[in-house]
Amino acid sequence: MQDRSVLPDVLRGVSLLGILIVNMQDFAGFLEWRQSGLDRAAQVVTDVLANGRFISIFAMLFGWGAAGLLARRGRACSCGGTRRCC
Q1: What's 29-57 look like in SS3?
Q2: pLDDT, tens digit, for every residue of 65-83?
Q3: 19 neighbors 54 (Cβ within 8 angstroms)
Q4: 47 exposed, middle or buried (CB, 10 Å; 0-12, 13-18, 19+)?
Q5: 8-42 pLDDT, tens digit each
Q6: Which of 11, 25, 67, 78 is the most exposed place for a label (fewest CB within 10 A)?
């Protein structure tokens, strides 16, 4: 059994938390750019620092995981990874 790297799982968790934070405004029923005071400041910070970034990170990590699965599958095949024998 191989040692599993913890880094991709931690990054996936952070990106999911970021996606949740970005979407909490929609869950709470905020209308876009119609707040005032502290709510407006929170929306500006969230939009500038987080909006779109966490979904991109999560998508990249999904691709990394899929590539790892394909690489392990290729190593497991005795014929070199062609579809005919695996």
Answers
A1: CCCCCCCCCHHHHHHHHHHHHCCCHHHHH
A2: 888 888 888 776 656 555 5
A3: yes
A4: middle
A5: 889 999 999 999 988 888 888 877 778 889 888 88
A6: 78
